[in-house]
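Today's session is about reading a structure prediction critically. Students often jump straight to the picture, but the first step is always the sequence itself: look for stretches that repeat, for charged clusters, for runs of hydrophobic residues. Only then move on to the predicted structure, which in these notes is written as discrete structure tokens rather than atom positions. Here is the chain we will use throughout the hour.
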Amino acid sequence: MNAMQLAALIAAGFFAVGVCAAVYVLVRLGRLISVAGVMLSDYRDRTDALIDRAQAAVDRSHEQLARTDEITASMDQVAAGMAELTGRVTALAPLARLAAATSGTKLARVSAFVYGVRHAAELRATASEARRAAGVSSPSQLSRGPGAPGVVPRGGGAGGRPPGPAQPAGDPSGVRS
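Below is the predicted structure for this chain, in token form.
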């Protein structure tokens, strides 16, 4: 073997080692590219889901804005209706004042009359209950003295008030026992 052949053999060895190293790097690069492809497809899926959620959020906000526009429009209608109602009430205010001034005294008279009738009916019912409790069937059988059973004093109880829930009939002291 001469020097030329030895140099060719050494060059062939280095070439084989270089080729093996290149194959090793290409295999690793292939694995890296396949992992990167998987990661890119995963990112693509995630971004698609993110874009879908963002689109859904935009759609919901659009619906809320549409509802807000409807509410604003209805509030404008309410405000217009209130302005119209205020105008009508303002126009009717003098008539209401006139009606209150003229019929207020009539109303007071009618309510006083109704109160008097009701009070008289209560007094009559109280006297009727007292007669039944005393065993007397007609008012003519009662003695008309101030302490007679079944007779309710005209002024009521203490203070001239009619007997009420705080002062039972027949208890002039006003104290419950």
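Discussion point for the tutorial: Confidence is low (pLDDT under 50) at residues 156-160.
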